[in-house]
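Q: Hi! Curious about what Ferredoxin subunit of nitrite reductase or ring-hydroxylating dioxygenase looks like structurally. Here's the sequence.
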Amino acid sequence: MSIFKAILGICETKPLAEAAWERRDGKVTIDLKAAPQLAAKGGGVYLRGKGLTKPVLVVRGDDNKLYAYENSCTHGHRKIDPVPGEGKLKCCSVNHSTFSYDGKPLSGPAKHDIKRYEVRENGGRLEIKIV
Ligand code: FES
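A: Let's find out. The predicted structure is below.
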């Protein structure tokens, strides 16, 4: 990431097309066939709109599991990227706090966990319980 992007808090992770996901009854469902960014380890997308109060980061970890988080660093609320090959997440600020897939802070000024959402794969779809 360039210093210019870090100063402005610009992440590499892009929003997922609205046609690839829906939100209903406190649950977000992603059609994984329509989200190729989540096919590869270390890939990610974020969701915004459709009544979500906070953007949601969705990541396929280096362990090949899917995770979802509130897309907000607990230091200064910048968005977060997965770091492919390093098994962690990184805030898109100049301080770039890092977090484990469990949401625990690993390095940098963030001292609190990022919020995780429960996920479940179900027949080519990923369900995320937003609470
Ligand atoms: S906003 Fe993430 S380290 Fe400051």
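A: A fun detail: Residues 73, 75-76, 78, 91, 93, 95, 97, 108-110 surround FE2/S2 (inorganic) cluster (CB under 6 Å).
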